[in-house]
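Checklist before submission:
- one chain only
- standard amino acids only
- sequence pasted in full

Submission:
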Amino acid sequence: MDKWTVLIYEVNSNLTRDSRKRLQISHNVLNLPMIARDTVGNMTSTMTYTFLGDGTGDYILEQNDYLPFGIRMPLKTQTTNRYRYAGKEEQNITGMDLSLFDFGARYYDAFTCRWNAIDPLANKYFGMSPYNYCGNDSVNFFDPDGRDFEIKERRRTITIEATVYTNTKSLESANQAAEFWNNRTSDSYNGKTIIYEINVQPAKDGFLSNQQNHNNCANTYEVNSNKLAEKAPHGKDATGYTSNETGEMYVRDDFATTKPNSEEKSTTGAHEFGHMLGMKHKDKGIMTESQNEYRTNDVLQSNIDEMMNSNEGHRDLISTIFLLFK
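Returned file contents:
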């Protein structure tokens, strides 16, 4: 029977024997491997594992704690291991008090939080220094190989946070638009659920112009037909207008909360919030160019992709909208 047995598990689902590798393993009361024996011919080698806490041992091979950009805090252990921050090999420069991490495409200096060479993909990030590490945000992003930084995956949700300022007249319409997005539960990106947390606040002293953000993100919302006609390319025919360049959103008075001559809710405000999030016009769903029979409460996946691509890796350009990965 033994010669056909490959893997044997005990009642707690712990592997106790692997006949392919000739391993016999015993576990402690915490179901952690304690002793592994490797038998080849007449020779037997034994590896003993020890752990911290609950009487399981007090020997740690290595423990490293880092500040966000990779500076190692005072060592608690000393070993010859050189693969540390971000799993990259630490290179100690002979004759110099300098340690660099080898990411492959470039070397990274954790002391200055900078690379030692220009980003080979610098043309993707015109607004950033080609030497910065992870867009100056190592908490939310990581760089796997020294070329491009990516979003860290923490749990399985993405939270989109935004703050929109409005005046008293526009408050109901703005809250209705925010509610449309905050109540959504079916949107996702790369297998992660998207949560919207759009917060509407009264403008300080009632002056929206004092709150406008000019960093490619609209953050003021006003129901004002006259200003809409002045700003929008379609003039008086427009029902809403958003400019992420100047930080403004406008909605026509008769489309503020309901459709004209109707009790049906207007989707114009929610549509403009979509533009604020980086979404473009589509032929159906919430982002149709006009509020017609093709306008529905659906948010197309292509719109979600646009939203993520407009924000991903560009937090330096965003002040009131940002992504939290939990």
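Reviewer check: Confidence is low (pLDDT under 50) at residues 1-5, 52-56, 312-326.
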